[in-house]
Amino acid sequence: MGWLRALKDTARSGLTVERTRLEPLIALRAGVGLALVIGFGLAFLGPGSAASSAFGAFMAAIASFQRSWRPRPVLALASGLTLAVSTFVGYLVGSSATLAFLGLLALWTFATGMLWAAGPTAGVIASGNVAIMLVTVTLPTSVAQAAGHAAMIAAGGVVQALLIALFPVRRWGAQRDALADALAAEADYARRLRHDPVAPFDPAPLMTARAAAIVTRRQARSRPAELHGARGLAERIRPVLASLADPAVGAPAEGAARDRARELLAAAGSVLDAAARAIRHGEPVRPPSPALAVLNSPDTPDLLQGAALRAARRLSALLADVLETAAPGSGRTADPAESMLRPTLPGLVPLVAKAVRAELRPGSPVLRHALRVTAVASAGYLIGYVLPFGHAYWAPMTAVMVMRPDFSQTYSRAVARFGGTLVGVAVATGIVRLAHPGMYLSGLLAVVSACLMYVLMRTGYAVSQIFVSAYVVFLLGMGGVRWDQTVPDRVALTLVGGLLAMAAYALYPAWETPRLRTRLADWVAASGRYAAAVLGQYADPAGARRADVRGAVLAARDARIAWHDAVARASGEPVRHRGISRSAADDAGEALAALGRRAMLLEAHLPDRGRAPVPGAAALAEALRSATEEGARAVRERRVPEWEPVRVVLAGPEGPGPGVLRNAAELLLESLDEVSVALGGKPAAPL
To answer: Average pLDDT in the 9-13 region?
Structure first.
């Protein structure tokens, strides 16, 4: 993709308005918190303190809207307190010398950029706080006032946190949605298997549900019972669905047995959908009676036999457990000792420090982002200081807000911010010129603008910036600043900040396209470890640890999601492919997805602990593990991977004999050979 097309696509993406579910009650609660702190500040402390507390409450509310599984009051408090500290320290340094403040700004923005190593939530909150700090340090005129403004900013965060705690809206709603989406995805998977027995399945909803199930100790003591066990059942249902539908190990491709399998899959989809609706809304489960009749009817040997019969019985038992678990109030509240626990914020500090240290290396995209945003913020502040506008902070504030570690988001957000700023400033300016609002009316208009921003925040960055721009105009007008003193300067410096951000990425990029081979190699290695872990269960049923398989499948899913995310980011970059074309990437991804699916089918029929070891499984597991590790190395080094160790084991006497394991091993090797063909190799000769 060339630069012209990339710029066109990112501009269109930045200005796109998305249809999404709105959350007006949560937005109203955030607006009420903002109104309380502004009203109190205007009535008792003056417009300066009111503006400080307003910025604290505004950013605390935005932090609570981020995609995070932590309690919302904690996010609001963290945002308000860190912004208060940044403001106070920034004023102490900036009041003495401009160069000293420039050094602090560089240090702060570099730390903000590195915090993306801890995840997007930490990165977004930190970026927003640094951007707002550039404004709030200009409000006080003495150290005492700076301390007072910092206290008011922290108070704004405390007010938002208290409102979230006292007036919860749809408690556990995000966790309910994550689990319901996972069950609904499996319901859709079951229906697709009726028509395509080897249909693919995207594990992203299951991974999201797993992330949502990791809770703090306090959350674990109050988590509804229906959110505790259904996710584990969903994980176990997926391979059973696949094994029932697959003609190689399940029901035959045609005949009465296939019709029976289709009936069971349709019934499973209906039951899973009913459980998803119940969990999403906290209602009793109402499964359709015809589906229950299909699942509860006995299977006669002339319909399903062998592995297919075992899969059908297992599916019925698992779905019965899902219905029992999904019922509100069923079972007992989870014991924290039995939960996957999330560290507290203090306990998170060493983990974040470790993640940041891991990114302090040449070639790290996070380090490149941190260096870019530091250079742009510093240059933007100097440019704003030199220009005769008098508002030096607007250019670096824009740059910090729009810059992200990847190309598409940075460019689309820059376009969206400038477009949204133009519209928001024009509308707010028209209102000011027509209404001439005073202090209290300006405060009210600022609250209304913020409420509209909270409501429409998820519809697109351009839309949110319209109301953010209006919010800033009204908030500054609350202190007596005339619109003609700020609006032209803000528009010009917003353009400067956006152009600096875009130029910085072009001059010092962190393209995803050259890293596609590394991402693919990671997926190859993780898929091989997963398949080897499953085969290890056949090699030693008595001593095998199921946790090994669980850990391997989670690692394989992470690698798969990282690969697809990388492909999506690379598709919008103005960079030629380096060693792997779009078609090769698609073919290799399909082959590895098939490899994971075939390993999953083996997992669905793991032998009981009392069974004897399967001959050849141990040698095959070791060969598969070593071959995929070497294959991953070949992918990174731009060579075509070969799978000779697996081929040798299957052709030799130490390999598995005729049977299910032999057939599965040959299918695994077939998937690996398809990866080699996708990367330019020749089709392998059949065994």
So the answer is: 88
